[in-house]
Amino acid sequence: MINNANSEVVVDTQWLADRQDDPNLRIVEVEMRKERYHNAHLPGAVFWNIFTDLLLPDLRMNLDATAIEKLLSDSGITNETTVVAYGSYPGTGAWIFWLLKLFGHSDIRVLNGGHQKWIAEGLPVTAELSTFAPVEYRAKPLDASLRVLSDEVYAAIDRPNQILLDVRTLPEYQGEHFLVKPPEGTERAGHIPGAVHIEHTLTLNEDGTFKSFKELQALYTSKGITPDKEVFPYCAIGGRSAYTWFVLKYLLGYPNVRNYDGSWNEWSRLPDVPIKKNQPTFKS
C-alpha cells in the first residue's frame, strides 16, 4: 500500500471498478500489440499503441502537440476528463502520467498493479472494442521543467549534486543488450559514466503494485539518491525513466527530478559523448 502525501494520483482496482460508468472518466490501455488489447481489456478502455500512437519511427517520443491533441480527441478525452492509465508492462501507466502532465493535463491517475492486478482479482474484461466520438482537446505549451536534454545530462556527469539514474535492466546497463536489437550504425551500447543503476521493476511488488513508501525510500537512499539531489533518470526510450520520475516525484516527494526522455536511444547515437561498457567477467 502506498503511504505518502501524493497517493491520490494512484488508484486501486476497486476505486476504478466503482467508477467505470463515470462519463467524465476515460480508461486508457497502453500496449505494444493490439492483440493483447483485443483479447481482454478493461470495459470501456481505449487502446493506445506504443509504437504507432506514442513513438516516432526512430523510437523517439512523439512530443508534437498536434499529434497529442488528435490522440486525446479521438479517445474522447477533453481537458476536463479524468484519465486512468494502465498496461500489462510495469510502469506503463506512470509513463502516460508523465506524458500528459508534459502537455498540461490536470487529472491523471495510475492504476496500481495495472492489467496484472485487475486480472488476478477476477474483475471483468471484454474483447469489445471501445470507440468514442471525437471531442475538442487543447494541449498546453510543453512543460520543459519535467524533462532534461542531452547537454545538461552531459554537464551532470561527476557533479555531486546531480545524479544520473539508469533504470534499465542490468544487461542493458552493462552493454550486453541493446533495446530489442543489436546496435546499428553509430549506435553504441553501455551506460553514461557515473550513472547509478536501479532497475525500475525493483519498485514493484510481485503483484505489480507499488512497494510501500518505506521500501521505496530505502531502495533509493541506499544508492545515494536522496531528496537533496537533482535526479535525471534515463532508460532506452524514456518510458521506464518516466515511470521512475513518477515514483520519485509523486510517491516519494523528491522535489528535483526530470526525465531524460531522449534516453539511450539518443545518447547512444551522439558522436562526442562518453559511454562506459562493463567488461565481461569470466570464472576460471
Radius of gyration: 19 Å
Largest sheet: 5 strands, parallel
Share in helix: 25-40%
How confident is the prediction overall: mean pLDDT?
A: 91
Placed side by side, the strands forming the largest sheet appear as 1-5-4-2-3
Please state roughly what percent of the residues sit in beta strands, choosing from under 5%, 5-15%, 15-25%, 25-35%, 35-45% or over 45%.
5-15%
By DSSP (H or I, 4+ residues per run), the number of helices equals: 11
Keywords: Repeat, Transferase
Organism: Floridaenema flaviceps BLCC-F50
Catalytic activity: thiosulfate + hydrogen cyanide = thiocyanate + sulfite + 2 H(+)
GO molecular function: transferase activity
Kindly describe this structure.
The strands form two sheets. A five-stranded parallel sheet has the order 1-5-4-2-3. It has a three-stranded parallel sheet with strand order 7-6-8. It is α/β, with parallel strands linked by helices and 284 residues long. The radius of gyration is 19 Å and the shape is globular. Helix 5 (92-102) crosses helix 10 (239-251). Mean pLDDT is 91; it is low at 1-5 and 280-284. It is built from eleven helices and eight strands. It is 29% helix and 12% strand. GO terms for molecular function: transferase activity. Residues 21-127, 158-276 form the Rhodanese domain. Keywords: Repeat, Transferase. It catalyses: thiosulfate + hydrogen cyanide = thiocyanate + sulfite + 2 H(+). InterPro entries: Rhodanese-like_dom (IPR001763), Rhodanese-like_dom_sf (IPR036873), Thiosulfate_sulfurtransferase (IPR051126), Thiosulphate_STrfase_CS (IPR001307).
